[in-house]
């Protein structure tokens, strides 16, 4: 099974591109590649003559590993070559990409493990180069610089050269993006693999350079854009999925703007997509944006606000590469040029993870309740230092409305949240408004990971210099919005004159700039000792 994709390619005549046309010229005189062709042919024969394909004269996994090693070595040169890189025919690199693309998910994982392990940094060479620095420093400045150059070269993993070779191919950058996506998928299934993480980091750094802001092309998408791009815009939309073509037409029509970043190496592939609504006020719910009837014309005089209501990174392999923040900044400049009266810029953002966090907090309290055998701890929190989730009066009312007064109130609340049943009763919606709003403020403003906002959307906008400006009740009443954040959405507002300062304070001091509404709600939820967050916003 481990080379099924390769064997299938071989059967239909690929045979490692060594048999006909360009492949013959490309590999003429290359003994190792001719040998690899024979190895593959031998395995095909072995697989055909064996039910499980395990016996063909050589251990199949070992043969696969050796073959990968041979193919990569043919491209980047042997380890002994050092800084002298061989001149490689493009066809060998392209063929490796073709082989990798034809592998099953399991075989790709083997390929990535082999390359990350066998072609990483040579630690002995690094230590050797480092040991030579003191002696070189005593000799001369030139000797020291030369020693540092050797150390720098030793620190570069060998697969870096493979990435460079692949990146030079037409379509090679896209191949590397997909390869990193495969690597991230593999890392999500293993507990700890330092070699794979280093492999992914090296690839991310290269992609960061290739996808820097100056090399990205800003493009506005309209209903007149090409069908394939429109189709991808619809398919990639992850925040507020589109139901049909009419939905798509609405989102690229009047009073709406859709912008994408593309790259010269992937011209028909959106890297990141930003949907914007043009309004005369900061929107407080998504229904008015995605469900508004399609209008014919825009009244430019009535537009003074841009609402960024959906931003989607389309390429998993570019995870960790800054794209969205650059897109927002570019779009702000575009809109200012188009609408001179535009003065307000804000997001209308989902809060993924809020409900799950809240259920987790309820579980903590229930666990503490069981250990202390006291129902009161469900109100006061698991310890005297832990802020309460709901007041006694709120929990009592929840139990009364639900008709579950004989059950621990927090158990009832947990079930209501997990099943979204609380949305079915207007009295329950009204009862939960205050506690859910203040708990959401606590989640966004106070809950941290390594000093930064635990919510990924909040972290993105705060890094960009936005202000945690307003929480909006019943802002997304779709099932997805209720399941993610109990229907609450948030505006992250961009005050253009303050974004750089806000971003710097967040990155350096982990300070979150927030409005008075958010600060008051967070204080009501507990955990804010003093009005240190007093805001003029």
Automatic annotation (TrEMBL):
GO MF assignments: malonyl-CoA decarboxylase activity
Signal sequence, renumbered to the chain: none
Pfam families: MCD, MCD_N
Matching Gene3D superfamilies: Malonyl-CoA decarboxylase, catalytic domain, Malonyl-CoA decarboxylase, oligemerization domain
GO annotations of cellular component type: mitochondrial matrix; peroxisomal matrix
Malonyl-CoA decarboxylase C-terminal domain boundaries: 214-494
Superkingdom per UniProt: Eukaryota
A biological-process GO annotation: fatty acid biosynthetic process
Name the UniProt record assigns to this protein: MLYCD protein
């Amino acid at each position: 099974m481990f080379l099924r994709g390769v064997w299938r390619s071989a059967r239909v005549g690929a045979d490692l591109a060594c048999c006909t046309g360009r492949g013959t010229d490309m590999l003429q005189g290359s003994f190792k590649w001719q040998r690899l062709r024979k190895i593959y042919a031998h395995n095909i024969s072995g697989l055909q003559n064996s039910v499980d394909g395990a016996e063909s004269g050589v251990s199949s996994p070992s043969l696969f590993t050796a073959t990968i090693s041979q193919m990569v070595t043919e491209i980047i040169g042997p380890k002994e070559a050092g800084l002298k890189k061989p001149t490689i025919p493009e066809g060998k690199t392209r063929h490796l990409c073709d082989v990798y693309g034809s592998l099953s998910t399991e075989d790709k994982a083997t390929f990535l493990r082999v390359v990350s392990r066998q072609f990483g940094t040579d630690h002995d060479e690094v230590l050797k180069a480092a040991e030579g620095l003191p002696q070189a420093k005593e000799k001369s400045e030139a000797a020291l610089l030369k020693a540092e150059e050797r150390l720098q070269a030793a620190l570069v993993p060998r697969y870096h050269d493979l990435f460079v070779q692949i990146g030079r191919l037409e379509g090679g950058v896209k191949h590397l993006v997909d390869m990193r996506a495969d690597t991230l998928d593999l890392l999500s299934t293993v507990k700890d693999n330092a070699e794979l993480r280093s492999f992914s980091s090296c690839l991310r750094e290269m992609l960061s350079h290739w996808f820097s802001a100056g090399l990205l092309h800003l493009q506005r998408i309209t209903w007149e854009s090409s069908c394939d791009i429109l189709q991808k815009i619809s398919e990639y939309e992850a925040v507020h999925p589109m139901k049909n073509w009419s939905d798509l037409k609405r989102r690229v029509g009047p009073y709406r703007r859709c912008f994408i970043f593309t790259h010269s190496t992937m011209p028909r592939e959106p890297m990141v997509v930003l949907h914007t609504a043009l309004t005369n006020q900061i929107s407080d719910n998504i229904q008015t944006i995605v469900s508004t009837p399609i209008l014919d014309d825009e009244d430019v005089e009535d537009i003074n606000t841009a609402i960024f209501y959906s931003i989607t990174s389309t390429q998993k392999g570019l995870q960790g590469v800054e794209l969205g923040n650059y897109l927002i900044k570019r779009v702000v400049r575009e809109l200012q040029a188009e609408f001179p009266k535009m003065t307000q810029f804000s997001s209308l953002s989902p809060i993924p993870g809020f409900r799950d966090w809240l259920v987790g907090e309820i579980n903590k309290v229930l666990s503490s309740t069981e250990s202390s055998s006291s129902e009161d701890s469900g109100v006061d929190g698991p310890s005297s230092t832990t802020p309460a989730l709901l007041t006694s009066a709120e929990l009592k009312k929840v139990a009364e409305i639900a008709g579950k007064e004989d059950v621990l109130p927090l158990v009832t609340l947990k079930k209501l949240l997990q099943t979204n049943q609380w949305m079915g009763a207007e009295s329950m919606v009204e009862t939960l408004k205050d506690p859910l709003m203040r708990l959401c403020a606590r989640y966004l403003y106070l809950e941290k990971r390594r000093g930064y906002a635990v919510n990924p959307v909040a972290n993105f906008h705060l890094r960009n210099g936005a202000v945690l400006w307003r929480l909006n009740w019943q802002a997304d009443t779709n099932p997805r919005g209720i399941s993610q954040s109990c229907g609450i959405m948030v505006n992250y507002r961009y005050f253009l004159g303050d974004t750089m300062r806000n971003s710097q304070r967040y990155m350096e001091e982990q300070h979150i700039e927030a409005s008075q509404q958010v600060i008051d709600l967070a204080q009501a939820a507990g955990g804010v000792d003093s009005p240190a967050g007093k805001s003029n916003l």
